[in-house]
Design a protein that fits this description.
26% of the residues lie in helices and 29% in strands. By secondary structure, the protein is α+β, with helices and mostly antiparallel strands. The protein has one domain: YbaK/aminoacyl-tRNA synthetase-associated domain (YbaK protein), CATH 3.90.960. The protein has a five-stranded mixed beta sheet.
């Protein structure tokens, strides 16, 4: 996704930086510790499946210091009785990306992208870069530039 990622990011008109990382350190906690970022600067793109026939999906972006509200907000927005995190196989199948590297850039056009409003409060955020060996560092406005919908309380603060 290297050149394609650059093209997608350039098309947003928002300044960004691609940050190379050790793929063994791509998971959020390890990445933040190894590279000196705080959890509230890191935003995870999580694929959620609504259990219906056929299943429905959404990509949700939340800060790493929060927890996605799958059972209430996401489930209601998907219009299903049950929703859960998509497993690794479903994530790769739908996005072509492994968990730990999922980026909101280049997702299927029919996949809604919802971003927790807390993400938008940061000056800059770290996002997945399409694989486990890189991240994208940019202003959160890059998300609305690709059509992500900002949702209040999509995530809840993690209790310390």
């Amino acid at each position: 996704m290297g050149d394609q990622l650059t093209e997608l990011l350039d098309a947003t008109g928002v300044a960004y930086e691609i940050f190379d990382c050790d793929p063994r350190l791509a998971d959020t906690a390890q990445f933040c510790e190894a590279y000196g970022f705080s959890l509230d600067e890191s935003a995870n793109t999580i694929l959620v499946i609504g259990k219906s026939d056929p299943p429905v999906y959404a990509a949700c972006i939340v800060r790493a210091d929060t927890r996605l509200d799958v059972n209430k907000i996401v489930r209601k927005r998907l219009g299903v009785k049950k929703a859960s995190f998509a497993n690794g196989e479903a994530t790769v199948g739908l996005t072509g990306m492994e968990i730990g590297g999922v980026t909101p850039f280049g997702l299927p056009d029919d996949l809604p992208i919802w971003v927790d409003s807390r993400v938008m409060n940061r000056e800059r955020i770290v996002l997945g870069g399409g694989d486990r060996s890189r991240k994208v560092f940019a202003a959160p406005a890059i998300l609305t530039a690709i059509g992500a919908e900002v949702v209040d309380d999509l995530a809840k603060p993690v209790e310390a």
